[in-house]
Design the sequence.
């Protein structure tokens, strides 16, 4: 009776040890899942691209670039997409590829539905075929801009701008 | 056993402790690791969150700027910025709502809701939850007075320091980024300060330089006014040294930025520097408008009020005259010398020429004709000479000795020789000896003047005074020499009846308290002042500052009560719209109604306010027209005692002293009284018992059988009693009733014509019921489309329904001429000659006076053949009536009113009492009319108040 009790106590110790080991392993795995992103390099670079995109779009807003290029271009029929491409090219590092799409956001007065009226023709990009090219890293940002500057006829319009920045493959 | 057991137990405890420790370490490691993981997660994402939040906040700020631009541009000049503002028309920002910040605010909220939806869609990948909260923000530090923004958009304009501001708190969550609770105060605005005193003025170079300060948003100096914004300066147009009321855009020749938002602006022309009438500080009258690059407009003025004084001109005493007979005789020779007056000679004389002679005639066009008068020919002259119109003349009519008729420069209405008649000519000279006189043989001579030397048949020691000498049926004139238009010398004229009056002046001292001397003044946008249709005189050299161009609803008035600035308080003001129409070729100023308070004060707009002179010793009152800076200001609403009631039995304006019931085609029957069959009149009723005193008939012509006043205006009164858009604000000062009709009809069933007649006269009549006064102004224009002949033609007739017991009038000599008199059953109609501006009737508790102005008296005599004052004792049916009436033509005989005749009268119907504050305390009932008479001067042109410097 006594020998059997000792053996069982040893088994209990073993089970305790296994349980503790299991818990530690589970905990470590669980922690690793959070503490070690799989692609830390990717996270860092894409967040930088987003920041770059927003900063650029905000700077353009403060400088009334959208009124001068997009609005005036649409009113006068000038080649505003080329102007915008040039503006972006001169403002971004050369290794970054970009594409910008510009929409006017409108609202259906009766239904309240928001719809987008595209203004550009897909030419605001610094690569030949942006949609089919391989990007190493890329980030797309959305931006809204209430036209606040002159001319009066478009003051109050809301532009919706999508800017994609990336590193070409 | 015991030690072994003890050892095993202790080892077992160590293992348990070690296990617990290990587990604790592991759990803590997990916790720390998870926390670090969370931090890393936020760190890697927060960079983007910050940019997104910044983008959304900046865009909200832009959206807020856009709605503020829309609100301020619409307020300033919708037409000019229609291209921009029409974009918001589907949200409700229309031209009609241009001066309504409440509408602008609703539009702003609608637009921001649209923006919220658009932004939420655009940033949907972040899981945005965006909203904004309207809060209150104190902006006192920006504009130097206590002001705040509490309802999204706000404007404080028209003062030297002005602002257009929008404020909201943006709330933002980005749920997909784990970002919650972002709040951001968004303040957009433009702040403009104009320094009223000019920096420099150069009359030679024709320039003025001022300094302004422009800041935006959170007080940031705005340095881009020249490059991105704009500035406009307006100055008051001036012609012949006086402002016209218009504002002109100045030509800006130089703008210099001096840092910290300060600019000096030089413009043409040179604008005269003025001194504020109350503070003495110098300023140039200017409006400055500034816009930033976002389109937000703000407008500032260099002054905040317009000040002037109203000077009373009514006399301390009033007077009438009573004729006193100095000399009266029948069949006697008269001789007198009169000066400072005029002589009227009328007569109809027919004679047969004893010898051939010649009469030299002068026609009205200046041509002359010598009329040959053969011997024995019949000559008839109808003399009609008034020296005040036709000048000096001489008449000899010797029927006693030589049979001689001499007419020298005598005006005759007709001159007939052997049945050839010349009308309306002046006999330059004719000396005719006659052999016989026909039954036409008399002259009448009347002299009125202020000096008479009476020689025969009696003398009088006092020569000066107001005189009237009447000689009737004069059959012999030795020599009547009207030496000049104002003097006369009569030697021996034989009159059937003659009388010489010398008038005794009855002076009435007005009481010290005059609470009913209340002037209801109208002020137009171009500085014309009116009282009862009369333009008020403005003191020579005094110029009233121009009104700024702003919505009427902003304007207010402060007026003193005792003449000192201590009693300067805000008083009721009413906004009205008047225009001048050409009515049958005559310019007539008529109301279009109450003004739209949201329109700019310009053109037809008129401010109406009341200036009171409650004491005799108060000679002037200060008036300050000022304006609110808050663009949300509503039109002024004040308590009033006048109310318009319209229902099945009422078309009434209630006033504490009388209920005025308008009868017309809409409301034909006066309650419990008479059916007027659509004839337009107004009935005064007791405000407590509703008892009808009887109608005030605004015009009447002819007789219907034995009933007087056959054809009267037939139409509908239009009542103006509230503002457009603001129906809940009642007219605080006066309610109008306007009648414009081309028809007449009869109140007598036997003469009534369904639909009325259009071949008599057109009528344009305006009646005003005024709060806080005892008078009802009545202005009436009548134009005759066809000639008609009948007996009796009434300017007005105020019925009495038997209420009045006493009657009085004042004639053209300022005499009461045998009045007042008490009601009497015989004669049924009392008719008096030469009525003038005042008539009244009363009983022992109350009275009413009809007072017309001098121009109306002139029109009465220009139109009428024989004007009369009448009292009709009975109404149809034999009931006591007791009316007061003024007639152009009497009821005694037929007379014609010709096509093209234009009749105008302008006066008041006034309530008075026999005693109490503001009245003479009269004891004799026959004198009660004096309490109406003491207020009469304020309605006459002679005593109109004057506008002058404060």
Sequence:
């Amino acid at each position: 009776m006594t020998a059997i009790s000792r053996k069982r106590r040893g088994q209990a110790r073993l089970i305790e040890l296994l349980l503790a080991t299991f818990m530690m392993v589970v905990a470590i795995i669980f922690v690793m899942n959070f503490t070690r992103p799989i692609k830390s390099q990717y996270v860092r670079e894409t967040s930088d691209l987003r920041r770059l995109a927003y900063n650029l779009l905000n700077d353009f807003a403060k400088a009334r670039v959208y009124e001068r290029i997009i609005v005036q271009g649409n009113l006068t029929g000038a080649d505003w997409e080329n102007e915008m491409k040039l503006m972006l090219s001169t403002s971004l590092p050369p290794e970054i590829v970009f594409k910008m799409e510009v929409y006017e956001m409108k609202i259906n007065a009766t239904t309240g539905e928001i719809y987008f009226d595209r203004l550009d023709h897909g030419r605001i990009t610094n690569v030949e075929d942006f949609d089919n090219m391989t990007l190493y890293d890329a980030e797309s940002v959305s931006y809204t801009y209430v036209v606040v500057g002159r001319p009066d006829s478009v003051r109050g319009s809301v532009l919706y701008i999508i800017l994609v920045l990336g590193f070409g493959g | 056993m015991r030690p072994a057991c003890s050892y095993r137990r202790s080892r077992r405890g160590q293992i348990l402790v070690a296990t617990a420790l290990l587990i604790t370490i592991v759990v803590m490691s997990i916790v720390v690791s998870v926390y670090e993981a969370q931090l890393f997660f936020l760190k890697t994402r927060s960079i983007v969150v910050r940019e997104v939040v910044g983008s959304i906040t900046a865009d909200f700020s832009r959206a807020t700027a856009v709605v503020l631009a829309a609100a301020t541009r619409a307020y300033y000049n919708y037409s000019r910025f229609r291209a921009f503002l029409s974009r918001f028309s589907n949200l409700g920002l229309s031209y009609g709502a241009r001066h309504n910040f409440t509408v602008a605010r609703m539009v702003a909220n609608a637009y921001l809701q649209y923006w919220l939806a658009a932004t939420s869609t655009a940033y949907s990948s972040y899981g945005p939850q965006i909203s904004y909260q309207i809060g209150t923000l104190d902006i006192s530090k920006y504009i130097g007075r206590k002001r705040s923004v509490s309802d999204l958009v706000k404007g404080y304009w028209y003062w030297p320091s002005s602002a257009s501001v929008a404020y909201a708190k943006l709330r933002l969550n980005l749920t997909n980024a784990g970002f919650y609770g972002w709040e951001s105060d968004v303040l957009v605005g433009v702040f403009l300060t104009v320094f009223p005193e000019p920096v420099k003025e150069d009359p030679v170079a024709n320039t003025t330089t001022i300094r302004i300060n422009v800041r935006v948003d959170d007080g940031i100096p705005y340095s881009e006014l020249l490059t991105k914004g704009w500035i406009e300066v307006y100055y008051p147009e001036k012609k012949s040294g006086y402002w016209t009321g218009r504002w002109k855009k100045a030509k800006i020749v130089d703008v210099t930025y001096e840092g910290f938002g300060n600019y000096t602006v030089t413009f043409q022309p040179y604008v005269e520097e003025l001194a504020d009438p109350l503070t003495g500080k110098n300023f140039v009258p200017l409006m400055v408008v500034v816009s930033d690059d976002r389109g937000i407009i703000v407008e500032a003025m260099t002054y905040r009020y317009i000040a002037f004084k109203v000077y009373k001109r009514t006399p301390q005493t009033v007077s009438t005259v009573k004729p006193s007979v100095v000399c009266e005789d029948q069949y006697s020779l008269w001789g007198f010398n009169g000066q400072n007056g005029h002589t009227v000679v009328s007569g109809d004389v027919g004679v047969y020429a004893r010898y051939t002679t010649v009469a030299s005639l002068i026609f009205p066009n200046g041509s002359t004709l010598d009329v040959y008068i053969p011997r024995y020919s019949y000559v008839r002259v109808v003399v009609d000479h008034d020296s005040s119109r036709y000048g000096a003349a001489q008449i000899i009519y010797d029927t006693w000795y030589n049979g001689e008729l001499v007419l020298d420069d005598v005006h005759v209405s007709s001159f007939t020789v052997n049945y050839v008649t010349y009308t309306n000519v002046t006999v330059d000279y004719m000396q005719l000896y006659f052999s016989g006189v026909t039954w036409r043989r008399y002259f009448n001579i009347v002299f009125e003047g202020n000096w008479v030397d009476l020689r025969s048949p009696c003398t009088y020691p006092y020569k000066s005074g107001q005189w009237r000498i009447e000689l009737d049926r004069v059959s012999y004139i030795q020599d009547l020499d009207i030496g000049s238009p104002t003097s006369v010398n009569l030697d021996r004229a034989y009159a059937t009846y003659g009388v010489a009056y010398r008038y005794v002046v009855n002076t009435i001292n007005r009481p010290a308290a005059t609470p009913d001397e209340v002037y209801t003044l109208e002020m137009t946008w171009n500085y014309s002042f009116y009282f009862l249709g009369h333009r008020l005189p403005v003191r020579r050299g005094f110029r009233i500052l121009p009104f700024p161009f702003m919505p009427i609803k902003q304007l207010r008035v402060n007026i003193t009560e005792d003449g000192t600035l201590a009693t300067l308080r805000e008083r009721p003001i009413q906004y009205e719209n008047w225009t001048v129409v050409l009515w049958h070729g005559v310019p007539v100023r008529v109301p279009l109604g109450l003004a739209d308070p949201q329109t700019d004060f310009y053109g037809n707009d008129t401010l109406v306010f009341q200036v009171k002179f409650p004491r005799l010793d108060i000679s002037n009152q200060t008036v300050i027209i000022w304006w609110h800076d808050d663009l949300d200001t509503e039109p002024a609403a004040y308590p009033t005692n006048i109310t318009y009631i319209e229902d099945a039995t009422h078309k009434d304006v209630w006033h504490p002293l009388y209920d005025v019931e308008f009868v017309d085609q809409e409301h034909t029957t006066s309650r419990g009284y008479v059916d007027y069959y659509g004839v337009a009149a107004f009935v005064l009723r007791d405000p407590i018992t509703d008892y009808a005193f009887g109608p005030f008939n605004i015009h009447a012509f002819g007789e219907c059988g034995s009933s007087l006043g056959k054809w009267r205006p037939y139409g509908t009164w239009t009542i103006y009693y509230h503002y457009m858009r603001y129906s809940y604000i009642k007219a605080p000062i006066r309610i109008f009733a306007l009648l414009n009709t081309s028809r007449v009809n009869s109140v007598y069933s036997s003469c009534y014509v369904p639909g009325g007649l259009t071949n008599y006269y057109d009528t344009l009549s305006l009646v005003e019921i005024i709060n806080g006064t005892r008078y009802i102004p009545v202005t009436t224009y009548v134009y005759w489309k066809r000639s008609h002949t009948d007996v009796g033609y009434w300017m007005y007739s105020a019925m009495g329904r038997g209420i009045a017991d006493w009657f009085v009038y004042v004639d053209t000599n300022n005499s009461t001429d045998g009045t007042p008199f008490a009601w009497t059953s015989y004669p049924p109609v009392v008719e008096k000659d030469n009525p003038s501006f005042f008539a009244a009737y009363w009983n022992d508790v109350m009275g009413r006076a009809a007072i017309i102005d001098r121009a109306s008296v002139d029109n009465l005599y220009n139109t009428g053949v024989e004007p009369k004052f009448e009292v009709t004792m009975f109404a149809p049916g034999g009931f006591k009536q007791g009316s007061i009436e003024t007639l152009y033509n009497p009821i005694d005989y037929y007379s014609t009113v010709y096509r093209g005749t234009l009749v105008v009268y302008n006066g008041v119907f006034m309530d008075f009492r026999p005693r109490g504050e503001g009245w003479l305390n009269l004891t004799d009932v026959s004198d009660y009319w004096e309490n109406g008479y003491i207020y009469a001067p304020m309605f006459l042109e002679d005593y109109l108040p004057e506008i002058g410097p404060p």
User: Anything to note?
Assistant: The mean pLDDT of chain B is 92.
